[in-house]
Amino acid sequence: MQLRKFLGVLPLFAALQTVNAHSWVEQVRRIDSTGAFVGDVGYPIGFVNRTDGGNVDGRAQNKIQDTKSNPPICKPKAGAYASLNRLSAAAGDHVALLYQENGHVTQPLLTPRPYRDGLVSVYGTLKHEDSDGINDVLNSWTSDGKGGNGKGQLLATHFYDDGQCYQNAGRNFAIPIYAQRYKEHGLDELYCQTDLQLPDDLPSEGVYTVMWVWDWPLIVSDTKNVTEIYTSCAEIELGPATGDKNSKIQFSKDNPINNAGILSQLNTPFEATGLGIGTHPPAAPTSMPAQDTATLSAPSAGPTTTTKKGHGGGHDGVKTVTVTADPVTRTQWATVTISAGGGRGGNAGQPKGPKTTSASTSASTSASTSAAEPTPTSITPVTSISKFMKARATGQERRGSSHQPS
Predict the structure, then answer these.
(1) N or C, fewer C-beta in 10 Å, the chain?
(2) What is the DSSP pairing of strand 152-159 with strand 335-339?
(3) What integer is the mean pLDDT of 126-145?
(4) pTM of the full predicted structure?
(5) Using one digit for the tens of pLDDT, what is the confidence trace for 306-363?
(6) Phi, psi values for residue 232, rounded to 5°
(7) CB 249 within 8 A of CB 297
(8) Across the strands, what pairs with 208?
(9) Predicted pLDDT at 295
(10) C-alpha span between 39 and 16 (Å, rounded)
């Protein structure tokens, strides 16, 4: 009888252990013209196999709790691909970055975190150096390649919870989200993913680095949080394009869900406008750029939380869209600038793409802690009140500031 009780709590114990772990990109996949994964798997810089044993979490993740010193956004790249494959892809290809949710999606109430477990932003550059810091990139690089130091650009923004993923919880159906998604998909587990499109003007050879940044602050209150960021970087081996890089993805509804991209992410690369206030969802933008990367003939494998409107007639000029909300104290803002007239501009040699979007993710409202200090030593409250949310400081300005954004 005692043994039976012990065996009964094992799945719950395993699930709780999982939540104590965190996430990192584990696979990099190319997405074909039907939306399915194709080709050999690529791996991130600093990849550690979960089956290796020992402190896998500590060796695999790049955790940032204090941005004031501008710590490196990537693990050192020297020797990273001595025994691992880079993903092979070309300009205009769609790519998926896969990671496990480690209980953060299926058990979101264990710690107070942002809506859908925070924001994942993906950046890309042809000029990556180990010295590239988190403030050089996060909320500094923009989709037109002109932001910050101009070395790279923003490629996508999505929520950490992609709307479909879950990790194996030993069929412990007392976990509601796990039970619901297991019932829906019938798989022991389903990796989360962040989908993006490579710029269409990348060279046909060389290495392009993508940077996955998960902003996951601990919520103290609606106006206070504690910085916690996790990053993964991956190099992509560039080759010549094999098809029309501007063609739409004809997404097939017959794709197995564990071997395909997510239609909503392919259609809306800038799906998430910000972290939101406390644990509440961010306000939806008044409009979003009309995307044409994938057809809508198949049902979406993952829900989107933003609205999207097409623009008829001429497409010249720049339109700025500002998220609005009731006049209350704000911890979040987002501004999206849309240039429907052509490629992503910027400095010479900078990658370009079909739209220009600048999305910032969080206001200067959090306290920063060191890795050895899990609780905040100081809290900086929000003091500005505005009906229209205002633009945040740039990465360069943050480095000289006394407070630390999440």
Answers:
(1) N
(2) unpaired
(3) 98
(4) 0.71
(5) 443 333 333 344 333 444 444 433 333 333 333 443 334 333 333 333 344 444 444 3
(6) -140, 140
(7) no
(8) 236
(9) 67
(10) 35
